[in-house]
Amino acid sequence: MAKPAKHVFVCTQSRPPGHPHGSCGANGSATLLQEFMQQFELRQLWGRFAITGSGCLGTCGTGSSVLVYPEGIMYGGVGKGDVAAIIEEHLLGNKPVERLQVPEEIWG
């Protein structure tokens, strides 16, 4: 397998209901990951890009969270309807989707 141009990580961390940190799992991340996989299949993106379900990415309060490398762009509040924009604009167009990016201070 060739090195992918970009790697998408979708947080699928689940915590019990009412947990103070929340979780991406409670915000529909399993459906989100499935949508990415279906879109990769439909658009024949496997090999060009990679996608991985991950544990906690550290931005629980902004879930569902998606992280794209090598740029290190973190998206928050991502829903199934945002998958096409991330693929079209960021993966294929090399332009991060500004409206979905978490504030820079989230990393601090």
Features:
four-stranded mixed β-sheet, alpha+beta, Glutaredoxin, globular, 4 strands
Structure, explained:
The chain is of the alpha+beta class and 108 residues long. It has a single domain (6-24, 35-59, 69-107), classed as Glutaredoxin (3-Layer(aba) Sandwich), CATH 3.40.30. The protein is 23% helix and 18% strand. It is built from 2 helices and 4 strands; from the N terminus they run E-H-E-E-E-H. It has helices at 29-43, 83-92; strands spanning 6-11, 49-54, 66-69, 73-75. It has a 4-stranded mixed β-sheet, covered by helices on one side. A hairpin with a 3-residue loop joins strand 3 and strand 4. The radius of gyration is 13 Å and the shape is globular. The model has no long low-confidence stretch (mean pLDDT 88).
Query: Would you tell me the overall average pLDDT?
Result: 88
What string, H for helix and E for strand, traces the elements in order? EHEEEH
Query: Mind telling me which CATH architecture this is?
Result: 3-Layer(aba) Sandwich
Low-confidence stretches: none
Which strands sit side by side, in order, in the main sheet?
2-1-3-4
Approximate shape = globular
The CATH superfamily is identified as Glutaredoxin
